[in-house]
Amino acid sequence: MRNNNDRNNKDNNAMRLIFLGAPGVGKGTQAKKVAAKFNIPHVSTGDILRSEINNKTILGEKAEEFVNSGKLVPDDLILDMIKEELKKDKYKKGFLMDGFPRTFEQAEKFSKLLNDLNLNIDKVINIIVDENEIIKRLTDRVVCKVCNKVYKLSDFKDGKELKCDCGGELYRRKDDSEEVIKNRLDVYKKQTEPLVEYYKNLGLLENIDGLGTENEVFERILAQLW
Ligand code: AMP
Prior knowledge:
Elements: H1 4-9, E1 15-20, H2 27-38, E2 42-44, H3 45-54, H4 58-69, H5 75-86, E3 94-98, H6 104-116, E4 123-128, H7 131-139, E5 141-144, E6 150-152, E7 170-171, H8 178-192, H9 194-201, E8 205-209, H10 214-225
Parallel strand pairs: 1-3, 1-4, 2-3, 4-8
Antiparallel strand pairs: 5-6, 5-7
Helix pairs in contact: 2-10, 3-4, 5-6, 7-8
Adenosine monophosphate binds at residues 23, 45-46, 49, 66-67, 70-73, 78, 99-100, 102, 106, 175, 184.
């Protein structure tokens, strides 16, 4: 797509990416790596919402029930949150959206917002993994309370302490229970999957096979971005 020197030497070379994919495809893990590689802020609406819930903010209180039951938080709350977030200076470098947009309304309003700011999306990365593998991954997932890094519960055998590299405690997300996972996959199919077609029609979509090691998937994504 362009090389890193181009990106570093021009002012107007911000990179704006959207990551699509069902829960459990490895979107968050890859999003963090790609954002670090291109030095752009990683925006995970799920992480922001979980932090608002932990901090018992007004937004957190409004969002809690939706998040814990695997339903989508209403569009107007999410769109206001994104509008506020994008006012920060750090987004002049671009952004990587992880978990947003998730509905047609969010996608269309986001396109309009960017259009009004004279900004465009460079690529939409859609990571694909089949449903059985997704359920296996999500029921085996633990997350760091501090930095949100994801680990496999099955890697912590023989009393190994559930701690992140950063020292943070690892926990199972409330919405990673089997019943809520089914809900989230349903919600994804009905409300978010249609965005694949939306971004394909805009000529922005790149499908990525999400099976394989973390680095294999990362390399596949980078191949679409350089
Ligand atoms: P995630 O961490 O991306 O799996 O998101 C966890 C939960 O946060 C979702 O199941 C929703 O309840 C909520 N959420 C995150 N992003 C959005 C969004 N763009 N629109 C609505 N709800 C969202």
